[in-house]
Structures are given as C-alpha cells and as structure tokens.
Design brief:
By secondary structure, the chain is mostly beta strands. Helix content is 0%, strand content 43%. It has no helices and 19 strands.
Length: 272
C-alpha cells in the first residue's frame, strides 16, 4: 500500500555566455526538491552561482519540452501524456518569470551568487508515475522530475435501520473515497464486532447479548454481498476527487427480538 507522493526537481550543471571572449559559467549548487505533492501549491528554492571575469552575462531559460508549455507556464510530462504545470522565477516574491527574452532573462556582471525560485501549482491531478521536463539554455540544459505516488482516503457515514418490527427492513448509507486520478482501488467491509458474525451473516448485538442478523450489499437489488475478499469487495478508479459508494443494508424478517438498541461496528478498508 502506497501512501505518499514525492515531488523532486533536480537542476543539472548549467552554463551560458554572451558572445564575448570568455565564457561565463552558471552552476546549480544543490538540488531543488518540492517534497511531497498533495495538491497544494509548493514553493522551493535552489542557490546558483555565476563565475565570470568582470564581463556582463545573461541566463535564458526556454519553455521546456511540455506539449502545452510556454515561458510563463511550463509543464512536466508523465504517464499517458498527462502534464503538471510549474513556474520558474527570478525573485523571492515569485513575480518575475524566468524566461528567454530580454526582459525575462537573469542578467548581471561578473561573478554572482543568486537563487532560483520554483513553484509547483495547486489543484492538479495526474496518475502515479514519473513526470519530467528539460529546460534548455544557450549552451546546455537541465532536467526536472516530479514523482506522484497513488494515495487514497476513506470515510463512512453511519447506517441506521430505524425501528425493526419483525418485517424485512432495508436501509442505505454511503462511503466516501478520494484517490489519486486513475489510481485503482478496492473497498472491503469486514464481519463486524459481534461474536460469531461473518461477512455473509453479520449481527448486531442488543440487550443481554441478543443478536439480530443483517446483511450488507453493494447493489440496489440486495443480491451482491459486500465482503472483504476478492470477488466480494467493491472496485473503482480514482478521479482525484471524492467518490461516493452506496452501502445497502438489510435485516431479514421474522427474527425474535428483545426491545432495545442493537449495534455493530463495520471496518471499511481501502486497498490501492
């Protein structure tokens, strides 16, 4: 089971120069790591240094290799051609785009130490896998990589049957699943907490340990048992947003009972 997403941006050695007698060299001195991407905006930085003997220089960065990329919004490309947008800036306010034109290049004179500012944008979805891009300059290039791993969360609402008077009684509730886009998952329901219960014959416990049989189904015709093994659990594919799974509960008719409250606790397990 995978439960984390890792985003990593790595700059290789980069150099550039103007058309003068001696080249000026740009070096990225440490990797730029976004850390874990959960859909929220992430900002990160990396220092760089320019080695230059007194002459003027500029550092252009092109749009990269993403199919939809521009010099203001670049893309890392991953599985099935899915792209994740990111931006590169020249300032700590993340307001001055770093591009490939006279007004967006980083410029200076002589040796210099500076910082690259990068931003992975919020509210993006993509399947698990590795996303890459390559940014080119006048003389070299550097690669960027982000890795997304599948992640899922699950929550459930109570199931209330109301009052049982000996007639067959049906009730429904929902389970909410939120998984990474295109991530396959399964949801299983265990046998509950009552003594002797199974996934095909669940029981609620009432006054004095009295048991009341009930069943849980995954379809509206109350014919497909919802269990906790292959063939009985519910399968799905993540969308990057919340998905609602309906649970159908049924208490059979003609059970002997003592007045009071009957309860059980079912554990829903998501596997991805």
């Amino acid at each position: 089971m995978r439960k984390s997403a890792l985003a990593l941006l790595v700059f290789a050695l980069l150099c550039t120069h103007k058309a003068e007698s001696q080249a000026c060299v740009l070096a990225i001195t440490s990797p730029l790591n976004f850390g874990t991407y959960t859909g929220a905006q992430i900002r990160s930085t990396s220092p760089y240094s320019v080695t230059c003997s007194g002459q003027s220089w500029d550092i252009p960065m092109n749009a990269g290799t993403g199919a939809l990329a521009s010099e203001t919004l670049r893309y890392l490309t991953g599985p099935n051609g899915v792209e994740l947008g990111y931006e590169i800036y020249r300032d700590a306010a993340y307001s001055q785009n770093w591009g490939n034109t006279a007004t967006t290049e980083e410029t200076g004179t002589g040796s210099y130490n500076g910082t690259i500012y990068a931003q992975l944008n919020a509210n993006q979805m993509g399947p698990s896998g590795t996303y890459t891009d390559t940014i080119s300059t006048e003389t070299t290039h550097f690669n960027l990589t982000v890795v997304i791993q599948n992640t899922c969360t699950i929550s459930a609402n109570p199931l209330s049957f109301g009052n049982y008077n000996g007639a067959l009684l049906n009730a429904t509730t929902t389970i909410s699943v939120n998984c990474t886009n295109l991530a396959p998952y399964t949801v299983g329901l265990n046998a509950g907490t009552s003594t002797g219960a199974t996934v095909t014959n669940r029981m609620m416990t009432g006054p004095g340990g009295t048991l009341l049989n009930y069943s849980l189904f995954s379809n509206s015709t109350y014919t497909t048992n919802w269990g906790n093994s292959t063939g009985s659990w519910v399968t799905g594919t993540g969308t990057g947003g919340a998905q609602s799974l309906k649970v159908y509960g049924q208490i059979p008719a003609n059970q002997k009972r003592i007045s009071g409250t009957y309860t059980d606790t079912i554990t829903a397990t998501i596997t991805y």
